[in-house]
Structure formats: C-alpha cells, structure tokens
Amino acid sequence: MTSKKTLAGSLVSLSTGLLVAVSAIGGATASSATSQDTTQLQVTSTPASSPQGYWTPERMRAAVPGEVLAAKAVARQERTDPSASVAVETGTATRIAGTAAQSPVTAALHAAEVPVKHIGKVFFTLGGVNFVCSGNSVAATNRSLVATAGHCVNEGPGAFATNWIFVPGYVDGRAPYGQWPARSLHAARNWTSNGDIRYDTGFAVVSRVRGRALADVVGASGVEFGQPRGLTYKSYGYPAAPPFTGQKLVSCTGTAHDDTINPQFKSQGIACDMTGGSSGGPWFAQGGGTDASGAGGFQNSVNSYGYGTRSTTMFGPFWGSTIMKVYNSAQKK
After folding, report:
1. More confident residue, 75 or 135
2. Hey, what CATH topology would domain 20-331 get?
3. Would you call 49 exposed, middle or buried from its count of C-beta atoms within 10 A (0-12, 13-18, 19+)?
4. What is the pTM of this model?
C-alpha cells in the first residue's frame, strides 16, 4: 500500500454539527451551546505575557513545519466510512471585499515571489514544540484577522496553540511590519473535536500593535465562500522543508481538481511542489472580479496537505457555510 503523508511527514511523525471552537490564548475554558445554525464558542482568557518576546530569530529558524500536525487527521479521515461522512456544505455564494493588492498570475509549478505585505509566517507552540506555518491578513470587521490552516491553531483534535504570532511580509528572518500576537484562535468544532481534514481552516484575531490594527498596516484580502469547484487559483506560502528554506515567499498556480486518492475529503488540489511550512498559506481565486482596491483575487482556501515527501499537488479545504460561520464569529471579536 502506498504510504500517504502530509508535506512534512518525513520530518516528524506525531502520534499524536457545524459549530465553532474559539480559544483566546491561555486560562480556563467556558462553553455555551446553541442550535446547529449558530456558533458554539469555547473561550479562554488573554495571556499575562506577550509571545512577541518569545519568538527570537533562533526559535523562528528552529520551528518545525506545521504540516506534521495534519498527518493524524489525514490518516484518520482515510479510515472513515465515506457513506457516514457529512457532506461539506456549499451555502450561498458569498464575497467580502478586501483592501490588499494581489500579484499577477504565473504559470510555473512554483515561483519565487517578492514579499507581499499581508501574507506572512505563523509561529506557535503545541505540546511544547515550536511550529511554523503561513497565513494571510483578511478583511474583517475588527480589521485584525488572519486566515491559516486549522492545524496551525489547534492540534485537531486537541489543544489550541500558545505563543501564536503572525509576521506579515516576512523575508530572510526580518519582520518589516512587526510581530502580531493572537488574542483569540478560531476553528470549526469539526476540526477541534474530530480533526476532520475537510475543515482544516483556522482564524486568529490578533492584538493591535502600537495602537494600530493589522489591516491598517498591511491591508487585508477579500474572502469568499460557497464558490464553484474547479476554479483557477494562485496559492502562496513559506515552504521550509527541503529543498526550500522557509525564508522567502513562494507561489503556485493551477486549476483545482478533486482529491481522487481520498474523494471523501471533498478537498481540491492544484499543481504545486511547496513543502512543510507552507500550511495555511492563502489560495486566491483568479478571474473572479476585483475587490475594493481594484486588485484581482479573493481568498477562499488555504494550503492544507499533500501526499508524500515530493508531492506535486497541494490540497486545500472547500470553504463552504461552516468555514463562513467560523469567519463570521472571528471577524467580530
């Protein structure tokens, strides 16, 4: 049988309905339940100390690519009876305009990119291990929202991350727009309780830095949900596993197709050879109109998983009604 791994599965192996789970980093939890069509929140208190001082350049370089946290979810989902699976919701097509510029499409399997202000690296701690992912500033009422992979905010199932920061515009170890610590983390209960790879998306509400909101400093991408399958995408990330170094932004462009290895995942894949560290990087639908700034492309997925250590396909979850509920909950915090 062919061995199936997430993008960084060769580096580390960890043995490790439609409701929303939320963590404001640190402290004790409290929960309340409502009907299926509303959100269920799991909220914790704000940490006493800031993670900004924790993330030294040395710790950033040593952080483990976060894709290893998705390995158990992929394995578990492969064992699930597809007939018992709940379909990924489509919902009404929805689009929220953003304020960030978008780079032009390229045709290569992967291409080097100049830094993009609103796209950056995500650093966090889970189980005493420091990890690295990618993320993107997205349009939100609170002007302080970062989209990433679910396994970059919560173990899935398991604990929420600590020491979580976003470093927009990261390049060669530099943080030109500062470090933005999370004050709450959000993911679908389908992920936090079940590790369901179909809902591998998370959002972080970050604190203001020097009195300014994230979107006011770096801009924010528009987002959309419930869009047709099979669109053409441009994805971004900071791959850190060989042959990449994690120090520079990379992109891939391709037309999405269904995951034929595990069709029950309901994921879509594009041609891409990004490796560990790119998890959570944004997917922008191409040719879908323009946002308020006149820039093309709205985000409606994230880098989630691939098969094997030299995968040439990156898969991302479908952003339907459940992910939109998570987004709506997070953007108002």
Report:
1. 135
2. Thrombin, subunit H (2.40.10)
3. exposed
4. 0.79
